[in-house]
Amino acid sequence: MTAQPAQTVRSGMTRGAAMVEGEFLFTESDFRKIAAMVHGDAGIALPETKATLVYSRLAKRLRALGIASFNDYCALVAGHDGVDERQKMLAALTTNVTRFFREPHHFEHLRDQLLPKLLAGARAGGRVRIWSAACSSGQEPYSIAMTVLAAAPDIASLDLKILATDIDPNVVREAREAVYSNSLLAGMPEEHRRRYVLPVAGRAGYSRIADEARALITFNELNLIGDWPMKGRFDAIFCRNVAIYFDDDTQARLWNRFAGLMPLEGRLYIGHSERVAGPAAQHLTPDGITAYRLTSMPREAAR
């Protein structure tokens, strides 16, 4: 394989000059077109410091399609014939870094602070709903399901469901399959691994999440900045390490929409680098490490 030239962002560019050095011409105009499409489609803000990342991830798409330049690629994804490729472009630029029980304090908080009351209500005939709002390849919602199962051996008799959504149909498909390399199980507590993980016949080194955990979860595609079809409220919402890719206004609107879908005392769990800001901060009170409790009801938030 021929080594590719190092990719560096060039400063002091002239009109039409390469923004990143590499095998494909990638200009500032190309970058701005791609950044505008990604922001419009998914709310993700791409500053110019991300130019090298954009180039390296999309260069693979240009090679796969046999396209000679980013200018031609931009024309494709902006046109009617490029709808499928535009989705692939977004998937290529979306970071899907996840693992089982990532930021374990959230699952401990769910287990100790929230589930006892929710399960008591469910045993009295109530319902419990939890949303993993950027589920990636499924490790987060399965971690939630295992936490619930360990706390409620009688879960089959209770009305408790987990919704898991992501903008990328590829990772949603992976999540539904629930098959993972054993190397990805490293962060899972050993007791959960023994109870809720099974070897896959004929696939050495791979495991599948047990049916009792899978049965609690419904996976769907959903764009967080698009329309939300859900009507009921969620007792807990996990949306972690996603809002950091949005601009401030998009973040504020997202927090407010989440608050509008929660009951009083509902919990919102966000990423370690994120903080609730904007109108929702009047209603969501810090309740642990990057966990928030809804203490007052906002006006109905637009969905």
Question: Summarize this, please?
Answer:
By secondary structure, this protein is an alpha/beta fold.
Describe what this molecule looks like in 3D.
Helices cover 38% and strands 15% of the residues. The chain has 303 residues and is an alpha/beta fold. The chain folds into 2 domains: 28-93, Chemotaxis Receptor Methyltransferase Cher, domain 1 (Orthogonal Bundle), CATH 1.10.155.10; 104-294, Rossmann fold. The strands form 2 sheets. The chain has a 7-stranded mixed β-sheet, with helices on one face. A 3-stranded antiparallel β-sheet has the order 3-5-4. Strand 9 and strand 10 (291-294) form a beta hairpin. The termini are far apart. The model is unreliable at 1-15 (pLDDT under 50).
Provide a count of the helices. 10
CATH level 3 topology of the largest domain? Rossmann fold
Structural class comes to alpha/beta
Q: What percent of residues adopt helix (DSSP H or I)?
A: 25-40%
**Overall number of domains:** 2
Named at the architecture level, the CATH assignment of the largest domain is: 3-Layer(aba) Sandwich
Biggest sheet overview: 7 strands, mixed
